[in-house]
From TrEMBL:
GO MF annotation: an example: hydrolase activity
Species in which this protein is naturally found: Flavobacterium zepuense
Cytoplasm among keywords: no
Protein name: Alpha/beta hydrolase
Keywords: Hydrolase, Signal
Length: 272
């Protein structure tokens, strides 16, 4: 376990050449087959993604970003802090509770990730360099798809092809919205098939868990992630870290972005 004091010097992770690179953005791309959207206005609204990518660059890495909001609110976004860093950023929209069940949120996330594996090369990206990140509910979706192989298996994609999992303050026990669906109180800890902790495994992709301070985070979120890191290690995972951001609570995305970028660079360097 590492306790990390955030310093502004971390922003030196910016890749210098990327500042001279031009970028393009395509918006509202459907990631399910067109037939799936027929007569479904809600799916047409929510199940789309935006892609921001460097022009005239080959084999760039891609970060899929899943927004937070408790699986009940929020919209796709491409964080400003991730732009102009030499990477492709994909902001993913997904359906929300109570319009759909939590399993449908996970299904949407997996479909968007599968789209990335099958399409980033068309934009110049390397499908072997795809990272998952997101804040809160978005981080939960990262872990569910990255650890439970059945979600990407539906698309004949091995989840171990994911280059790295870098969630911000994710729920690691069963998500509170999934518990609500089952009539379980918000503060009743539960670990079932809708909990990332249920799917810990030693052969998962490199993982960096980032949370706020243990006394400032919401509803024991630090402790869930600490336990997640411990159980991954006990199951043989050798490339997992948990960073605690001193002085920050659940709204810890801004100081976490440099850690995300550093982790992407670290993993890419290992692949060279």
């Amino acid at each position: 376990m590492k306790k990390f004091l955030v310093l502004f010097v971390l922003f030196t992770c910016t890749i210098s050449f990327a500042q001279k690179t031009d970028y393009d953005t395509k918006t509202n791309i459907r990631y399910y087959p067109d037939a799936d959207y027929k007569n479904d206005n809600y799916k047409s609204e929510r199940c789309v993604l935006d892609i921001y990518y460097p022009k005239n660059v080959k084999n760039f890495a891609t970060i899929l970003w899943f927004h937070g909001g408790g699986l009940t609110q929020g919209s796709k976004e491409i964080p400003q802090a991730l732009k102009d860093k030499g990477y492709c950023i994909i902001g993913v929209g997904y359906r929300l509770s109570p319009n759909v069940k939590v399993v449908n949120c996970i299904e949407d996330s997996a479909a968007a990730i599968a789209w990335a594996f099958n399409n980033v090369a068309k934009y110049g990206g390397d499908p072997n360099h795809i990272f998952l990140s997101g804040h809160s509910a978005g981080g939960y979706l990262d872990l569910m798809v990255g650890l439970d192989k059945k979600w990407l298996g539906k698309y004949n994609i091995d989840a171990n092809r994911i280059a790295g999992l870098i969630p911000f303050s994710p729920q690691c026990i069963t998500h509170f919205t999934a518990r609500k669906e089952k009539g379980i109180p918000e503060k009743q800890p539960t670990i079932d098939e809708l909990a990332p902790l249920f799917w810990v495994r030693g052969d998962a992709p490199p993982t960096l868990l980032i949370t706020g301070n243990r006394e400032m985070e919401m509803l024991g979120r630090y402790d869930e992630n600490a336990y997640m890191a411990r159980m991954m290690k006990l199951n043989g995972h050798t490339d997992i870290q948990h960073f605690e951001l001193d002085g920050y609570g659940h709204n810890m995305a801004d100081p976490a972005y440099p850690l995300l970028l550093n982790e992407v660079k670290r993993v890419l360097d290992l692949k060279k």
